[in-house]
Amino acid sequence: MLEALSMTFFQNALLAGVLASVACGVIGSLVVVNRQVFMAGGVAHAAYGGVGLAFYLSLPVLPCAVVFTALAAVITAHFTFDQRERTDSFVGVLWASGMALGVILINLTPGYNVDLMSYLFGSILAVPRSDLWIMLALDMLIVAVIFSRYQDFLSLSFDMEFARARGVPVKGLYALMLVMVAVSVVMVIQVVGLVLIIALLTIPAMLAETGARSLAHMMLAASLYCLLFCLLGLAFAYQFDLASGASIIAVAAATYFAVRLVQLARSR
Question: Which of 86, 163, 171, 252 is the most buried (most CB within 10 A)?
């Protein structure tokens, strides 16, 4: 394991895990508190359309997918904010159409040779150094937005009517939250992939929610949980020659169920 630390690709993977943990911990907490897990899943799968568009147009995947997925998030916010009872139907359409668009565009790409598995299930060991700088910039943007509008997000998460009374632009803030979900999703595509990404957004936040004294405390704890899962998952993947994305989620899921079993045993 120690010899792996001297390898550039493994160092990049560790840095990608750290950067992804910040976004997943912060935004995942908002997703869990606002009960928007299914919505986040729809946005996550819509991101595959952005991946396909990037390959079809021969553009860098990360920036192109960020723009495409952010637009999908804004459209989702517009159609679901005032019609919450229709949210599941719209998200289902978004989920399927994003995946279908991505597959079609990739199939139409000249010289089709895209490794679909790396985007569906992640390939953190293949993250290039150039993408790390983009991930760092996106992390800084997310943290800056949350820091500047923390009280507004707190009001939106726990009492929307109170937020309206305070003059908070709740619909705009709701759209902004989904855009940040979109940004986080694209960041983590290469870490665990689109199929598993919703687990990394929600499991650390659900664990952090227990015992959290505030939303900020929950975000910090969720980020640390996420980082722990990434590091342990990478270690298992390297040691036993396993898929890195699946290993990270397996560690997260095992921890979640272990904690829940302990809580269940203590409650009896």
Answer: 252
DSSP 60: -
Distance between CA atoms of residues 21 and 16, nearest Å: 8
Cα–Cα distance measured from residue 228 to residue 25, given in angstroms and rounded to the nearest whole number: 12
Q: Check: pTM over 0.70? Answer yes or no.
A: yes
Q: Which two tokens stand for residue 123?
A: 């390939």
Report domain extents, the chain: 2-267
The percentage of the chain sitting over the pLDDT mark of 90, rounded to a whole number, equals: 34
Taking the C-alpha atoms of residue 265 and residue 268, their distance in angstroms, rounded to an integer, is: 6
C-alpha–C-alpha distance, residues 239 and 109, integer Å: 36
- What are the tens digits of pLDDT across the range 188-235? 887 888 778 889 999 999 999 987 889 999 999 999 999 999 999 998
- CATH superfamily for 2-267 is ABC transporter involved in vitamin B12 uptake, BtuC (1.10.3470.10)
pLDDT < 70 positions in the chain: 1-4, 83-86, 112-117
Count of CB atoms within 10 A of residue 80's CB? 23
142 CA to centre of own chain: 12
**Per-residue pLDDT tens for 43-56?**
888 888 998 898 88
The rounded distance, in Å, linking the Cα atoms of 119 and 29 is 24
Cα–Cα separations (whole angstroms), residue 85 to 41, 82, 110, 157, 186: 17, 9, 42, 18, 27
In one-letter notation, the amino acid at residue 240 is: F
